[in-house]
Amino acid sequence: MRVLKLVLILAISVVAGAQAQDKLEQDRQAIRSLAGFYKVNFNYAEVTSPNPVYQFSKPYKSHGNEWAEIIVDEPKRIVIQHMLAINDSTVIKHWRQDWTYEDPEIMLYTQDNAWKKIALTPADVKGKWTQKVYQVDDSPRYQGYGTWSHVGGHDAWESETDSPLPRRESTTRNDYNVLNRGSRISITKEGWMFEQDNKKVLRTAKGDQVLAVEKGYEEFTKIDPKKFDYARKWWDSQKTYWADVREVWADLAKSTRSDFKVQTKANGKLLYETLFTLGDESIKEKWSANQNKEKIKAALLPYLAK
Questions:
Q1: C-alpha to C-alpha distance for 127 and 211, rounded to whole angstroms
Q2: Tens digits of per-residue pLDDT, 13-62?
Q3: Listed residue (224, 213, 190, 149) closest to 33, CA to CA
Q4: Regarding beta strands 269-270 and 265-266, do their DSSP bridges make them parallel or antiparallel, or are they unpaired?
Q5: Is-contact 22 7, C-beta < 8 A?
Q6: Is the separation of the CB atoms in 74 and 234 below 8 Å?
């Protein structure tokens, strides 16, 4: 009987391990499917407020052509870089999303462009993927973790976390300072959908006050890759420099014990302007990786709050 029980336990363990491995591969394929060439429609609108006299902001609509390229593909880490193609001769390095599996550390946004390192337990992250979103200059933006589901062939992931103000409002509003993001990613036949249920929060020493709730939809629909010929050529010349930028940022984040605060402007220049200018100079002067990293670190230090 004891031998039979041991055989049954072993068999169950093998089956469970195989199922977990299958699930992990399903997750990976869903994340990898976020890459591609897309037309993106952006739609945001405030839908409710706890304040009966609150004046709702005007709905936001925009669109663009976006290329999402996998730049790191490891068993438990996938990095996707986004680029906006404005026309046949203009490209903007856009946001980046890093996906990490069962990641024990996360940087949570607090307020005023500051993040706090949080250690998670194995139980917190078991079977879950963390989506780490970065700005155009590769500084942190927000991070959230959740479980990918694959029910009935439908792939979806969701999480909730705090972030800075969206770029569409960061220069026009000062009545709130934290966006609590409820995010849901769904893979579709045509591409993927990024749905959001967001709370606009004023965070003070007295606590959080919700000003309004907004709904957001970013629809990624696959289009002809030929529209991105210039963007691909531009990225091919820039990708080595930006790999060095990511490495310097990672080293700076590791050296910070808990709080991590970034200033968007220093010495009269915005952070992204400084790094983009440095990238063009690096290519022109053909700097080595060590030269890149030295100059990138020196350029970033004035933007890190003491």
A1: 34
A2: 444 455 677 999 999 999 999 999 999 999 999 999 999 999 999 999 99
A3: 190
A4: antiparallel
A5: no
A6: no
DSSP-based three-state secondary structure for 41: strand
157-161, long-range: CB < 8 A, 24+ apart: 157/30, 157/129, 157/131, 157/184, 157/185, 158/182, 158/183, 158/184, 158/185, 159/131, 159/183, 161/108, 161/109
With a cut of 90, say whether residue 129 has pLDDT above it. yes
Q: Taking Cα atoms as reference points, which of 213, 186, 210, 177 lies closest to residue 197?
A: 213
Element (H, E) at 145: strand 140-146
Distances (CA, A) of 167 to 95, 283, 294: 11, 28, 29
Terminal-to-terminal C-alpha distance of the chain: 66
Residue 67 corresponds to which tokens in the numbers above? 């290329």
d(CA 292, CA 285): 10
Strand partners, 200: 179, 212
Q: Would you state the structure tokens that stand for residue 234, as one six-digit string? A: 């531009």
Cα 197 to its chain centre, rounded Å, is 16
* C-beta of residue 213 within 8 angstroms of C-beta of residue 49: yes
d(CA 253, CA 246): 11
Return d(Cα 152, Cα 284) in angstroms, integer.
Answer: 52
Contact 305, 262 (CB under 8 A): yes
Strand stretches in the chain, DSSP E: 36-48, 60-74, 77-87, 90-101, 105-109, 114-119, 129-134, 140-146, 148-151, 154-163, 178-187, 191-204, 207-222, 259-261, 265-266, 269-270
Which pLDDT belongs to residue 13? 43
Which tokens belong to 161? 């976390």
pTM: 0.91
Return all residues near 228 (Cβ < 8 A) that are at least 6 apart: 37, 65, 67, 83, 85
| Unique residue bearing structure tokens 């589901």 | 149
